[in-house]
Protein 1
Amino acid sequence: MATDSWALAVDEQEAAAESLSTLQLKEEKAKPDANGDNLVDTTNQVEVLQRDPNSPLYSVKSFEELHLKPQLLQGVYAMGFNRPSKIQENALPMMLAEPPQNLIAQSQSGTGKTAAFVLAMLSRVEPGNKYPQCLCLSPTYELALQTGKVIEQMGKFYPELKLAYAVRGNKLERGQKISEQIVIGTPGTVLDWCSKLKFIDPKKIKVFVLDEADVMIATQGHQDQSIRIQRMLPRDCQMLLFSATFEDSVWKFAQKVVPDPNIIKLKREEETLDTIKQYYVLCNSRDEKFRALCNIYGAITIAQAMVFCHTRKTAGWLAAELSKEGHQVALLSGEMMVEQRAAVIERFREGKEKVLVTTNVCARGIDVEQVSVVINFDLPVDKDGNPDNETYLHRIGRTGRFGKRGLAINMVDSKHSMNILNRIQEHFSKKINRLDTDDLDEIEKITN
Ligand SMILES: Nc1ncnc2c1ncn2[C@@H]1O[C@H](COP(=O)(O)OP(=O)(O)OP(=O)(O)O)[C@@H](O)[C@H]1O
């Protein structure tokens, strides 16, 4: 398998990379809300969706039929999974085929992509060999930690298996070689571990995973680092690229750089999940948006909510205002230290705060089951002020995880933002209905 074509395609990609937004992240299950929640369904709903042929969770196969190793079957069932989702059913046979094949895969947010590539890594790793064999890149520190937890949980029936986190702050002694069989980390640190610090022998890597692959390709810094890592890998190393979104130019680029890939791609109209209801509210100012947010909160039972702002400043202001109103609010934005960010997410996951006010840094991958509402306090736009459709999809995908129902509410406060919303609707061919937040009955109706 040739691995140098990625580098050759870099120049063609640069223009596309410029126009795309930067990174974001992922997380795990929150404890159930003691008050209950009328938006989050029980696991029965998942069972139903998994039997509905139109659902991304639909699969005809059982995990047994995917021929997973017994220890992995045990791991899967210990995580409470009963049957594979569509992406797991489709991707796993391709990823486990011999000889190993490359894959570029797209599947809607929250449909089990992480479990799919984790199972692929765990299937290929030889725990008896005490050196890194699988490398997984995540765009953020928090996402790396979360995916690492999935690897640890799913691989717990391999007693010899160890995982190393190549993330900022994880200091090892220079020149030492690590014995962990799987390494997960962010591109900069992984690159250092492979090159400058030589903790990893890249020539022994068998599986290379790019999670949130589109943003890894589209963000210039990440792209450069990922390419430099890829160049060090052996020619027959299996490459697996996963994301919920692939902007057209990124998709083309991915196909050029991954040799002979298998491809799983969604049609545009399949990208949005029908289980997430989308609305917008019309306001005239930031203060009105704040009032509308409070009205929504007063009218419906919300387990946990994520509120997205365009800037750190707005996020800080909003978190302070919500606190003044008596809400338990957490704030997470990019300028915070990574350890602080991890602690904020951990508290949110544990249900200690009900609202997380954040920026795009949290748009991707956060997996908190109890998030029943996502609010776009500001609509996602790129640096030129155009709609950022990919970020929109990732943001609203923080709710409606794995078959649960969710609610996404967009705050529109100007002609310009109405125009952005219209363009998002057009892009996904999906109608976003207006909601009157002064009409409590109407708000209540949307949750039923
Ligand atoms: N087969 C399964 N059965 C039941 N639950 C599952 C299954 N696969 C994954 N899950 C659960 O579904 C949730 C979403 O999965 P995951 O985080 O892998 O989705 P994703 O597609 O990677 O999402 P995103 O696009 O946001 O990164 C997780 O809580 C995970 O534990």
Protein 2
Amino acid sequence: MSDSLERLYQAVIAARDLDPATSRTARLFQRGPSKMAKKLAEEAIEVVIDAVNGKTDAVVRESADLLYNLTVLWAAAGVKPEDVWREMERREDLLGIAEKMPKAVKAPKTAPGKLPKTTPTPALRRRIVALEGHSIQKRR
Ligand SMILES: N=c1c2ncn([C@@H]3O[C@H](COP(=O)(O)OP(=O)(O)OP(=O)(O)O)[C@@H](O)[C@H]3O)c2ncn1[C@@H]1O[C@H](COP(=O)(O)O)[C@@H](O)[C@H]1O
């Protein structure tokens, strides 16, 4: 899938300078990030609605539109697909998809004039168990 997305990203970059009258992508670049963001949000909502209504084929089609609009926004934001793949690999290295840390219980009172402790006390940290075949690596 990443190959398709990378080819699409290159096509979007190439289309950026085409005539907006004939190229939707060029038109999106001409109208700017807020229009791109609006289209991306619209597609995301269309995916959600079709998924909730069990319209699998429509979810596939709208997901392709969503990915197109996402690559356009990436290009406008100066994000490359490999930037996203690197982040996903970083999270995978951290034992699968990074889970949200548990909500910290009420932190101990801070003495007046002292800075509150920002890192959760050891008791608040969730015990990390390495996934099978993974070694626990320090967060990069
Ligand atoms: N992959 C896509 C792609 N996927 C989806 N879309 C467009 O995004 C639309 C989906 O968004 P909407 O549902 O909002 O479409 P719409 O409601 O018809 O459009 P609006 O009313 O919002 O204007 C589709 O109808 C397509 O026109 C795409 N448009 C272009 N590409 C590729 O982008 C590259 C550049 O193409 P041009 O933009 O045509 O130069 C080429 O490689 C294309 O294949």
